[in-house]
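Is this the right way to post structure tokens for a design question? Let me know if I should format differently. Anyway, here goes:
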């Protein structure tokens, strides 16, 4: 947990030097969660409601500005290629939230832009931050699709 919190506090400084959030996260060399998480989303007006179920068998943690507003990492598609375009690097107001095994969490996010197509990700880790996964929680690649 201390490592995760330290990482969140370093995000502002590293964001200025490393605009590509994937480069920064790849440098940490933290093993993936043994069982992948999947997200289901539905566009509801100006919001996207995302449901994630913890089927890993362990309590997970995630950072956010509220239990329904996780730290976000964004990619946009340009010229047929996905590229990191934004990350919620400022740790001000963020807290760590626990996500027990067998439970679900629902995130309510502002609907991202569809032009260019956008994908949103967040990070779930074990409570001790020894394993983590970057999970896609929304993809707006197909603007006609309302949910996955």
């Amino acid at each position: 947990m201390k490592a995760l919190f330290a990482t969140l506090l370093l995000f502002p400084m590293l964001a200025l030097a490393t605009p590509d959030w994937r480069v920064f996260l790849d440098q940490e060399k933290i093993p993936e969660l043994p069982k992948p998480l999947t997200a289901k989303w539905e566009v509801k007006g100006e919001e996207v409601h995302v449901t994630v179920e913890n089927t890993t068998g362990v309590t997970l943690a995630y950072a956010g500005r509220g239990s329904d507003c996780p730290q976000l990492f964004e990619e946009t598609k340009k010229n047929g290629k996905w590229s990191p375009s934004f990350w919620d690097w400022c740790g001000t107001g963020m807290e760590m939230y626990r996500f027990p095994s067998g439970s679900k969490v629902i995130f309510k996010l502002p609907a991202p832009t569809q032009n260019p197509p956008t994908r949103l990700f967040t990070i779930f880790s074990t409570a001790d931050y020894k394993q983590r996964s970057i999970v896609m929680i929304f993809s707006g690649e197909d603007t006609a699709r309302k949910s996955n």
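Format looks fine. Someone answered above. Worth noting: The chain has a mean pLDDT of 80. The CA atoms of residues 95 and 108 lie 17 Å apart.
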